[in-house]
Design brief:
Layout lengths: L12 E2 L4 H7 L2 H7 L5 E4 L8 E6 L10 H8 L8 E6 L7 H13 L7 E7 L1 H11 L6 E5 L15 H6 L4 H7 L2 H6 L3 E10 L2 E3 L7 H4 L9 E8 L7 H5 L7 H12 L22
Length: 285
């Protein structure tokens, strides 16, 4: 695929409704205080575990329940019947994204499943967790991110806790990931999706939280595929476009990308042989 960023598609989706869900999502500050810090990983179809897996990783303050509609939609796409889908939940407030990546990987290894052919999909913070898993040596057939802050968020809650702080553009953990040799070597398998929107205040080259250049990783060379999805509002959108980035009704181009990945019959090597970076090496905080 062409590594240059794609222009916003001509079909712009109108956004309506969702007030109840947004109010629930708006309670994030309370939710992160009440959430368990433990990692949980559960396969949806445990009776048919093979080597083809799709890991769906949620964003800040969320859990696997918040991306369940997305996971369910993915499981119904053409070619998805041969893939095993995992519901994964992890702490996003008190744990940095690199530590979350390692804890998730350990939890998955303990299942004894063969993950040699894995597609990782990360929404928002989950995109960085997915990339860190790959940088640490996790097998990667392909990696897809939705509204992920590859260059840090445009605006965010006060960086209280290791999770939000690790996402900041100036944080050395993010810098270490963006310069990691294994991450660089795998970027031709990466598919980055951004959201922009128009509302009463005009056009916005961001989703309310993550800018388009950050979501597309414009400072990262070698990305296999970039695409921008456009939304339109009759009122003032605020952070809503970022929230819509996990809603399957508004991310059709990403679903089309996943369909192609599911239908591909190619067996892809988990990791280029010439990358020898120590997977246990951890940057200082």
């Amino acid at each position: 695929m062409n590594g240059s960023p794609a222009k916003a598609p001509p079909e712009v989706l109108w956004v309506r409704g969702g007030t109840r869900q947004k109010l629930i999502y708006g309670g994030s500050a309370l939710r992160v205080l009440l959430r368990s810090h433990r990692v949980s990983a559960r396969a949806r179809n445990q009776s048919t575990l093979g080597a083809q897996h799709c890991l769906v990783l949620h964003g800040w303050s969320l859990s696997e329940r918040d991306v369940s509609d997305l996971t369910q939609t993915l499981s119904q796409l053409e070619g998805a019947q041969k893939w095993n889908f995992w519901d994964i939940s992890y702490d996003t407030q008190w744990t940095s994204f690199p530590d979350s990546a390692r804890r998730i990987a350990q939890s998955l290894r303990e299942t004894g499943a063969d993950f040699s052919q894995t597609i990782l999909l990360g929404y928002s913070m989950g995109g960085l967790v997915a990339r860190q898993m790959v940088a640490d040596g996790w097998p990667c057939r392909a990696l897809v991110t939705l509204c992920a802050p590859h260059q840090g968020p445009r605006r965010f809650l006060p960086p209280i806790g290791h999770g939000p702080r690790s996402l900041m553009r100036s944080n050395q953990l993010l810098s270490a990931l963006n310069s990691h040799p294994r991450d660089i070597a795998m970027r031709e398998r990466y598919h980055f999706f951004a959201v922009t929107y128009d509302d009463r205040l005009g056009h916005h080259e961001h989703d309310g939280i993550v800018s388009r250049p950050s979501a597309l990783g414009m400072n990262l060379d070698g990305i296999g595929h970039r695409h921008t999805m456009a939304l339109r509002y009759r009122s003032i959108a605020a952070f809503d476009p970022h929230w819509r980035g996990k809603d399957p009704r508004f991310v059709r181009p990403a679903l089309d990308c996943m369909t192609k990945l599911f239908c591909s019959e190619d067996i892809i090597e988990a990791m280029p042989e010439n990358v020898t970076e120590d997977v246990n090496q951890q940057p200082q905080r």
